[in-house]
């Protein structure tokens, strides 16, 4: 169960409105790697955890924090949209090209649909969907996913940082950068502990089942030399990579029985 | 540019048809972490690579192999669907409950839409979409994503393995397990090299910008003790985690200017 | 069954082309609350109605009118796109910034995909989908949905109204505003009749089953005071709201059996 | 900012596992009208509120409660999936038709993707998406939406109630039914207050602008008599409905200028 | 503008309920090639037509008919769902495997979401979306699309035909088969007329611009011989196909400038 | 199985960067009719083919070529994005309106998400999804689909051609135009051969089953005269079209049994 305080976790106050930056920040809210993806993935993983209480709690703590990040970015976006140009009076694209560019570059749905407040979309208006989130029950895989979530998110925040000189926005982004550093590092630590326990290749207990003959072979399918560069190196599981210049097609030319005529498939 | 041989990379021949297993295998084809996600992510990353030729080639070799995996699984699914029950004659759910269960558990679109061949969907019929794939230009983040892709995919193949006793299907899955071992290990190796070069926190050059005061703090937002367990441990970047029992809400209660009346928002 | 006349229900003729306004009007066509949502929801509800012929007919009348609204807006958009700048000659973003802003702000798919005619998308190019529509069989719930559809749609039309000074566009919007007034009012009237019959809480016959102890309690989960303001007020079903300052977590800490090891979940 | 307790808001403990019921409950979690839609809509509306603190707090209190409902249903689903049949040993659809039916009726992704825990999807595996949620800035419209959300959700819970005899599941559903009663009633109350302030037709201040001639006319587009039944009745804004048996097509037959030849459109 | 009669275009009355067939018929309603795709594509093309009144009218006549087909199938589905098993009493998957199979194979949302009436989804519950429809302004391309729509739709209806022995369902399918014959033939006829006018390769006036050297070459990218079989044959534009056994990669190895460091891309 | 060469099939080198053109070209990559749709459709059709080796090979050859087209366009887009304006320094929309227009018209995700390289989306940022692709098992229908894919794609490339004067982009587009000519023609040829074998109406063997009375009737549902224009003409199957001015509604007014009360549907 959850409780809410009206206070934000950190400042979310721009120096001045900027509807183009409002649009860009939607990436960190409703984009593939935005805060909603973090929030929904970590909470789901925590709620679904059938194992260690320690990791379950780490996930729920971080998921709970991410709700606060969605809150901060939503607040920031609404403030960046204050007074954004929407009127025909402006008739911007005829007489005032700079204003016109703002109107052209804004997300038109910010005004029409949301009354100049945040959406749950990315900057191109694609609605957030749960196909971005992950919860598999296997914590090694999912901790790795969480490190990626924080890596791609921090990368995007870093790019956003250079797209504005507004010190208020930058202040919030500096906080998010720091938290994404922490989250990357904590999930890596959990990942390492879990790898120690379950093995480095996920999942860890299928080694005796797989066709091991093919499990350390760099297969070359091109006229490039890059894959060969890893030949002889030691993989994280302690074995060495070998290299196959011309991997054979071992499966033969597939044939099928003719389909039932009532399917109206091609009958050859 | 690409060339194709009609021969499959490996065997994709079940001992006997099984339309329920055909449906389940769609996860490895068109699911969030299926082979199409691998193929489209690695190829995109390779084509977009503006850096090292070595990693570009590794990505394109692996992406090219994944096309062959999509081909193998498509072939396997079509074979598993041979002779699947579709006729009213069966009228299965009245007289033959076992057959009825097969008809109920099949993907009805396999017959109606695809003439008993594979789709590009997951087992619930959700169409593959590019929101599953990733290509960011930052190879540390993307190599991490690739390790996750191979981890979640191998996890799913491992679960699928126990869902059948068909030795033909298992033979193919054993091959996929092995290749996903290799791909996990090779992308980890590339990830490590790139972390050595660019730093372990992605992206590596924002440390002087972020609010470092918050970048190694485990924040507790619950009555659970799990996060505290990491206190004092050394993070992968060499610094130690601290722990904050009661993180403060530092951002104040947000206020907004009343919206322009022509937006018809609530005016308070 | 349906019949069509080539004549539009009302005027859809702008004074002059305006490709930015064409893009914005896509919200009223293919957006979440646009006319396609109205048309498909009301028709589906009507076709699915297993009850009163009166409401079925009201729904089908209104759904049939909405097809004509989609037709009018499609026509308007095509006319607004007549002569829109698409040529490289313009090379607008270098020499003519006002024109550049138009080109930047247009929906590029209007030209590339649709030959400067309407799409079935919203202004951000998201394709209309049936997840926007509703047909539940329960007419109280669905009439309420229909009132919302007309409310959000009229709100958007109101915002669009101030985004143009084109008297031709405004003429059409004034007609749509009026029809959305009518549709709000008629669906409210139907809703009231149905509430009288089936009860104000949907669905109306579960009162003896629910845990009534919790059915009139304003629960506070924050440090805000807003919810308390409703304390003691009379709800629409005649009972009074009570207020709970600190709602208890009554469900205990959940525990799970360890997952089957073959699932490769975390085992704790 | 948010805090979490490991304790659930209410019981979420089935008497025994039931993977088919687990699948059905996904509707209340990730479906169009499920708890995630409530949670994301109310939180977004609260965070975007530029008006009264009272309604903002009501929205955030309810949104915060909904997170706890998602948590409860996720927990319930994971428990219902404990020990679900996944093994080939069962080979269910050949020898044990009852077991086969369970396997056929389960969501195969529950096992393959989520390790027998909850997803963020509906029972057909469609991923939750933000196109289900609404936040417009206009609180009359949005409170109406919220009443609908609680109406459709309670309707679905009512239907789910009769699909099981498990007293543990029913206990949780009885609690959800009660809370959805409360939420319907509280949002209706807020809606009424806001209608008193802003007018009953949303938005309230466009009356002088719209073509009022068409704003209280029941238009008949069919050979049905249902719409006529409302003729002469008093609408909620105090005016009477009139009825038009044969609404005229007032807009003429639309014509277009021939498209620019470089668009390769049909030239007539 | 449109008018509606309560009478269906043709019979839609099954001999008896069959919830599995109800699910399958959703393909013809809300699937990729279902009637909604026809209806929305033909109406959009008609409304967007900037050319010949003749084709515009053909499109609008057929689009108007398709609304009636959606109506018929919606009606059929609701009737097939009458009395479908939804109760726990059945507890079907324990005691009555045949009934269990029905419950397992039904679309659970038919009951939970739609009260046993039709949805706007396909049999796997994927919501219809406008990405299935097409309206390009170019009538040759779009008439071809329409022929495909009618071809894939008729194929699916043909497969559905053999999945039931219910004479009521079959009666409706026989009517749909006939109309899809007519629609294929009429759109082919229109396509031919338009090809005569605009040329057989769409669009018809780019021949002098394209690199004609590559426009009649069968390029072989495999070890298969199939493409060669067309060598020397006369294409529909009167020219002969040539065959290239080993197409050359003419574009060189692409290189990029290193990305701006602030993007944090790999720098090589 | 596939092999890759680092060399592109053809030149993909613009004369100079142009981020607006980069955005537009996404249509040919990840749009409904873009190269990914071609690649995934032809490969799927080829892998699913249960009939003639000749068509299977033609499909796989063309599908393999399309991967190379995706590669070329991805390369072109990354090059067009080199040096695109992303910095706040520009602060473009205030001081330099021409630059502002570029920034407003760019896809913001090109910079934020992809580090100025290509995405798998269309120009409006909608992710490619498998609902655009088709593979039915029936090669007549699918060859027709393929002709449409190449027609709509070539139409879009033709429109894109006039949107730039960059000779490097045009060079690549001229090559694509040529290949799309070839692919249209080769699929038409295959279609004709298959029509000769299986009949012109798809599928070819349902003629004796359908209600033939309705299979050559142009039905008029409007006050337009266009459909009548085809009266008496000979359809491609050799029969003549007849015309019905006022098609009768033959299906009667549908009635339903009242729904089970536990569904809480309207009871009339």
From TrEMBL, chains A, B, C, D, E, F:
Coiled-coil annotated residue ranges, if any: none
Binding site for Mn(2+) 2: 66
A family per Pfam: Mn_catalase
Family as reported in the entry's similarity comment: Belongs to the manganese catalase family.
InterPro entries: Ferritin-like, Ferritin-like_SF, Mn_catalase, Mn_catalase_C, Mn_catalase_dom
Keyword field: Calcium, Manganese, Metal-binding
Molecular functions per Gene Ontology: metal ion binding
Record carries keyword Aminoacyl-tRNA synthetase: no
Listed name of the protein: Manganese catalase
Residues annotated as binding Mn(2+) 1: 35, 69, 150, 183
Cofactor binding: number and manner: Binds 2 manganese ions per subunit. Binds 1 Ca(2+) ion per subunit.
